[in-house]
Amino acid sequence: MTLPTQPLSVTRLAGSRHDIGTAHGRIHARLIQHSLGVYAQLFHDFVGIRWEEARQEAERFQAMIERGFPAILEEMAGIAEGAGVDVTDILTLNCRSEIALTRASGGCSAFSLQRQGRQWLAQNWDWRTDQLHNVVVLHIEGTDTVPLVSVGEAGMVGKVGMNANGIGVCLNAIRSQTCGDGLPIHVALRKILESPDWESALDVARNDRVCSPAHFLLAAGDGRAMGLEVQPGEPGRLTPQDGIVTHTNHLYAAGCQVQDFPRIDSQPRLQRLDTLLHDELATDSDVDEATLFDILSDHHNAPLSICRHFNPDQPPDERMETLFAVVMELSERRLTLRHGKPCETADSLTLSLA
C-alpha cells in the first residue's frame, strides 16, 4: 500500500554550477542517500547487478557527457560534495535509465494539448513506490542558464519541467535493449530545460542524440509541440493532430528502427488518452488544470489505466504506480503538481516563471 504523501516544497537553487549542485546535495542529502539504496536494489531486481557493477557501467557515459554537456558534470560533482557521497554514485544515479531501463519496464502517460491559444503539457510519472518520497521540485536560476523548474528525483539533474522561455518537456520510458552513443536520458532532459528557444531544444535530440530510447514530449508557449522518440540515431517525430500529441511506453513514429518491448498496459493507456482528448474533449471546450488532472486521474480499464495503482497480481518488477502528476500551461509559464496519485488529492503546488 502506498504511504501517504507529504506536501512538497520548492527547492530554490542559484549561482554557479557548483553552487547549484552543492546546495542540491546538502538540502536533499537524506533523500539522495535513500535514492542510492533504492536504485541499488532496483539494479539487483531488474538486471541482476550489484551497485559496484552499476558504477562501473555508468563510468562509460562520462565521456559522452563531457562531449555533449560538460557543464553538468560540475553540477553533479557539487551534488556529490553536498550530499557526502562519491561523484560516481551521482553519475550512476543520473544514468539509471541506461543501466536499468534498456532491460526493464517503466511507465508514464503524457500529452500535449493546444486549445484557445493556450499550450498545455501534462503527464503522470509512474514508477516504483519506494521513490515516492524522493520526489523533489527544483527551481534553478543559474548564472549561465535560463530559469527553470524540474520535477524529478533527488540527486538527479533533470526530468519533467519547463523554463522561463516557455519550453516544456515530459518523459515516457521505453524498454529496449538499445544503448549507443549520446547523452543519458536525464542529462538530455536537463539540457532541453536549459534551451533558449525551440530549435535549441530540438537539437538535443537531433544533434546531441540520446544514448538509449525514450520519448520526449516537447511543447512551447507559442503553441508548438512535437513528440520525439529519441535514440542514438535519428529520432522519430510525432506532430500534433487537432492540437494533440499523446504517448505512453511504446514506439510508434513512422520509420522507427528501434525494437522495443512495451508493457501490456501501454497500448490501452494510449488509446484511452486519445479517446479522452480527441473524442470527449470538444475543440471549443474550456480547459484548465482541473480538466487535465481529471484526465490524468482516469481509471478506465483498471489496472491498465492512466492513473496507476499498486497491483500485487503483477510480477514484482512490473509493479508501477503513479507517483506524481504535472500539468503545465506554457503560454503563461505555469506548472502545477500533484504529489502522489492525482485521483487521491486536489492539493496542488503551483509555480510560475512568467
UniProtKB/TrEMBL annotation:
The keyword Cell membrane does not apply. Residues 116-342 form the Peptidase C45 hydrolase domain. One of its GO terms (molecular function) is transferase activity. Pfam families: AAT. Keywords: Transferase. The keyword Transferase applies. It comes from the Bacteria. This is Acyl-coenzyme A:6-aminopenicillanic acid acyl-transferase. It comes from Halomonas chromatireducens.
